[in-house]
Design a protein that fits this description.
about 750 residues; 6 helices; 22-stranded antiparallel beta barrel; about 5% helix; 38 strands
Length: about 750
């Protein structure tokens, strides 16, 4: 039914679009006005060479329904992974070993990172790439003009620009594991009255590679803009909703070898003693974004961009929990008919989140001769309500209020920043760049912690100064550059809620050094970037328990990431190109110590009561977890008279699951190759063109694992802490083998 409605709407739109007049000659001015929106959030000048830009065409080529991280694959030092094994549900990426909550992400200069977790949940915005004009990935400490600190990279997205002419487009893709994407979008182009309108609706469904890891997703984008002689006002709304079956738990090594698609989530034993799975072990969330932008060009030197934004999120996840203590949920024990004290039972719980994020950004830009400068800032406020309900208890002889609430807490975060950045051409070819930012954060958490049902009062303030400077020299295609930056980052919500009141986390600091060289020729290009990222008080998982049994993160004083990123590209003729990259790195923690459980032969912990049954082990200098020493990628592309073929290969080296460098807690290296074939048929009547495509992922059926975790402990005679006695219990997230998808795109 949904597919029929989408098709009907598209046909109506097509008839309306064809009735519109062509855009006037002010389209170029409208594009200039739109470019102002992101000009201050992307690193300017010629000093920033560690960036990759994905255009709308490049994103569309790869878009078969997977989330945005998978469309960015091939970026130097970038690794992607997913819970469902296909990249449709929960997906993640790392850059230089840095996870998403340390990567600054914006859309049109507006912060996208969640204020509390500091990450981005791409599953809430499926098919976002279909409404993007470009995505810029800046490695290292990028321009964190607004939002979370850019500890590993910055990802700056710009939504679609106004087109010259009206258009309509239908996209459909289908493939293995019942994966389908349907999308319809249209736009008026720039009309004679200065207005333009664009809209998109997408639906993505998949069963997932992992058992029961289904995704039921939708997203939308709508915008209306007015362009005057020197002014643009643009209102847009985008977002979506998701329902996904959980695939968060991973599987152990034995299960990986025997049934790598197995999903333990929702497992329980039914009344007949049989294995069963809870039907509604799902994550459910909706997120809506609203942005109002205004840009004005005063004269050839001065322009301004201002924006207001509001984001609303609401949802929950539901879980079946076997044999859980009533005390964990604020429920009293009871005496059964035989006089026994019953303390445990199976429970179904919901954890809810409702949040509001709003604020404004402002930037004034100056361009004159050899100087480009921006002065701006932002004020943002976040309010988040976290609460949990017990909705069912298997065995309980007392009355439970409907949707019994067992915890509630509020997170409030206010932040403001101001910045000044400038790019100055001293002489021809020689450029200086400077960026000064001050950032203030006030973060408060009040209420009951969901892990231990205790108060979690957090009242923290931060004052951060984040400078960046660079110099570059360009001559006859050769460019040499050096950048230095300092970035500061506050702890996220989990860092606080998992810590004891007497062991609160500290903010992190990063000193980033980037030295590079590029050469661009008519037929080829080469590039090399050396980086050294020196961390102070980086937060890492240590394995230590809190007083209530929760694992803690802890600041490690000294750690670093250093490496070299090599890039190349060759285009000997108009129809063939080859490009690639390789990153070689060292990622180390100096003098790393870890708290480890000490279990005797009977799984008791009698001798180290003072530290909750744990012992402190020093491992010396170790590799940082999830940080391979080598990543590489290459892409072959053929374009011949409407036919396009792309063969892309990505390689990821070995990675450790924790910071102890034990071989029992390690991900093997893997190499994955994807092949895309597409043919565009020009149509003179009715349609503009028709494109058919086939995407073959994991062409050689590599059975690989891209993510995981581990738990370690000492086993045996108490007091013996030799490495041979330390045991590991790793878990893994298997990714899909060979899978194929096909589809078409029709443009009116």
């Amino acid at each position: 039914m949904q597919k029929k409605l989408v098709l009907a709407a598209t046909l109506m739109v097509f008839g309306w679009v064809n009735a519109q007049t062509a855009a006037n000659d002010s389209i170029e001015l409208s594009r200039d006005l739109e470019e102002i929106v992101v000009s201050s959030t992307r690193m300017g000048g010629k000093t920033s060479q560690t960036a990759e830009t994905f255009t709308a065409d490049k994103l569309e080529e790869r878009n078969i329904g997977v989330n945005l991280p998978y469309l960015l694959s091939g970026t130097p030092s970038l690794i992607v992974t997913s819970d469902d094994g296909l990249g449709v549900g929960y997906t993640y990426f790392r850059i230089r070993g840095t996870d998403q909550n340390r990567i600054n992400m914006t859309i049109n200069g507006v912060p996208l990172n969640d204020s509390e977790s500091q990450t981005v949940f791409w599953v809430n915005m499926t098919d976002l790439a279909a409404s993007m004009n470009s995505v810029n990935v800046q490695r290292g400490v990028g321009s964190s003009t607004n939002g979370a600190s850019a500890f590993g990279a910055s990802v700056n997205m710009q939504t679609a620009k106004t087109t010259k002419n009206p258009y309509a487009q239908i996209d459909f893709n289908g493939g293995m594991y019942n994966t389908f994407r349907e999308s319809v979008k249209f736009g008026t182009g720039l009309m004679k009255n200065g207005f333009s309108f664009d809209a998109r609706f997408s639906k993505v469904n998949s069963d997932g590679y992992v058992e029961r890891a289904f995704s039921d997703l939708y997203s939308y984008y709508a915008s209306g803009a007015w362009y005057g002689m020197n002014t643009m006002v643009k209102l847009m709304a985008f977002g979506g909703g998701e329902k996904t079956y959980m695939a968060w738990d991973g599987i152990d090594s034995t299960t990986l070898a025997n049934n790598r698609r197995y999903n333990p989530a929702g497992h329980y034993i039914d009344d007949n003693g049989n294995d069963a799975f809870y039907d509604n072990q799902t994550d459910n969330y909706r997120q809506n974004h609203f942005q109002l932008h205004a840009s004005h060009i005063f004269n050839a030197r001065w322009n301004l961009n201002a924006a207001l934004h509001y984001t609303y999120g609401n949802g929950y996840y539901e879980q079946y929990k076997e044999n859980r203590k009533f005390a964990e949920y604020g429920l009293p024990n009871f005496i059964d008919s035989l006089g026994n004290c019953i303390k445990k039972s199976d429970i179904v719980r919901r954890k809810n989140l409702k949040n509001h994020f709003y604020g404004g950004v402002l930037a004034v830009n100056y361009t004159h001769r050899k100087v480009n400068a921006s002065l701006g800032g932002a004020v943002n406020n976040y309010q988040g309500d976290h609460f949990g309900n017990v909705i069912w208890v298997r065995t309980y002889n007392q009355s439970i209020p409907q949707d019994f609430e067992y915890y509630r807490s509020q997170g409030n975060k206010f932040e403001a920043n101001v910045y000044l950045k400038a790019d100055w051409q001293i002489i021809k070819g020689l450029n200086l760049f400077g960026d000064l930012q001050y950032r203030y954060i006030n973060y408060q958490i009040e209420g009951i912690n969901d892990e231990n049902l205790e108060e979690i009062p957090v009242h923290e303030q931060f004052h951060f100064f984040n400078p960046k400077a660079g110099i570059s020299y360009t001559n006859s295609g050769h460019t040499t550059y050096f950048n230095f930056a300092i970035a500061n980052r506050e702890p996220n919500r989990q860092n606080y809620t998992e810590a004891g009141l007497n062991d609160l986390p500290l903010s992190e600091r990063l000193y980033d050094y980037e030295l590079g060289y590029t050469y661009a020729h008519r037929l080829f290009f080469i590039g090399a970037n050396l980086y050294f990222m020196d961390y102070d008080n980086q937060l890492v998982l240590t394995g230590k328990y809190s007083d209530t049994g929760a694992y803690l993160t802890k600041n490690v004083k000294d750690s670093y990431r250093t490496g070299i990123e090599l890039t190349f590209g060759v285009q000997p003729c108009s129809w063939f190109s080859w490009d690639g990259n390789i990153t070689l790195s060292r990622n180390k923690i100096k003098n790393y110590s870890d708290w480890v459980d000490d279990w005797d032969a009977d799984w008791n912990q009698p001798e180290v009561v003072a530290n909750n049954g744990q012992v402190l082990v020093n491992y010396g200098t170790t590799d940082i977890s999830f940080s391979p020493n080598i990543t590489a990628g290459c892409n072959f592309q053929f374009d011949i008279k409407g036919f396009n073929a792309q063969l892309q290969t990505n390689y990821v080296g070995e990675q450790f699951l924790d910071n102890t460098m034990n071989a029992a807690a390690k991900l093997d290296d893997y190499c994955v190759t994807n092949l895309r074939l597409a043919y565009t048929i020009p149509v003179k009547k009715v349609l503009k063109n028709l494109t058919v495509n086939i995407q073959m992922n994991n062409l050689f059926n590599t059975l690989y694992v891209s993510n995981g975790g581990t738990y370690s402990y000492f086993e045996g005679a108490s007091g013996d802490f030799s490495p041979s006695r330390q045991k590991y219990m790793p878990w893994y997230y298997a990714q899909a083998g060979f899978n194929i998808h096909a589809g078409f795109s029709i443009t009116f």
